[in-house]
Amino acid sequence: FFRVCCDDVAPWHAPVVCMPDHKPPDAVMQPELQFDWEPKSSPPLELDAQPLPHPQSSGQVRSRQYSRSRQDCAGDVLTAKAQSNMQLLEAERARKAMRPSRSKTSGGIATVCRWLRRWATCHGPGCWATLCDFVHLVNLVRVYGNRDISNHKGQYCIGLFAISLSVVFTSVLLNAYPKIPIALVMAQEFSVGEIDMLLVPNATAGCNFINASDVVERLDGLDQVLGVAPRWMLDGSISWRHDPGNSVAAVVIALDTQKEQGVVGRKWGHRRLGEAQMHVQDSLLRTLGARPHV
Predict the structure, then answer these.
(1) Are 248 and 284 within 8 A, CB to CB?
(2) What Å distances lie between residue 181 and 162, 177, 186, CA to CA?
(3) What residue spans carry the region label Disordered (predicted)?
(4) 59-85: pLDDT as tens digits
């Protein structure tokens, strides 16, 4: 190797001599390599030294380059690292700013845990150890449960669906059981009518008639009554004129169909009666051997 000697205070065009550190004893002195040093402010100084090959040396001497390029590269790397660190710091600050504040639930859980630890500490180290073992057991069950669910998702979905269906069906039955009487009353009202009141004459009374106008006037003033349609029930017998000997016992109900249509039953499907018309059950007509006109 060669040593390069540089003198910054050398005069202009001062020669710089590169001498070998050790010369062979029998070597013939070769001409010395001389070059001029011209210091400049810019660009950076670069020197290439290529000595003549020694007669008894088969190797070649490597040249050294002195420049500031490596320092510039190191500066660029440091600048890039600083920028990357600044970006990471800004991202961390943004993530912390977007993180939601601790809710009341998490604060309550922390308070409960703190109180449990204080209680366990007051009751002795054995109680605290038991509590820690219980928490560890719960955590172990949770971990193994999550792992098992992840491995058998289909079976757990089927089981969850079956349990949910059973719970919903049982809840509906339990909630509907107290309302069964109301449902039966509504079904009866669909076929018979709204809540009816039956007034019968008193056997001890001197009069067997009821003033329906007075009853309607009194009932219309009540908020619980939506409407009143009086009916008169008469016991009797019915016979066909073509066969007078064939008579059937029946109950004749006199009513106002116009009021009945607005009050009695939501399924009142009968038309309004005209003069000398009546509704007769089909069983009564079959007994008399008659046929309805409609």
Answers:
(1) yes
(2) 30, 9, 9
(3) 44-67
(4) 443 444 444 455 555 555 556 666 777
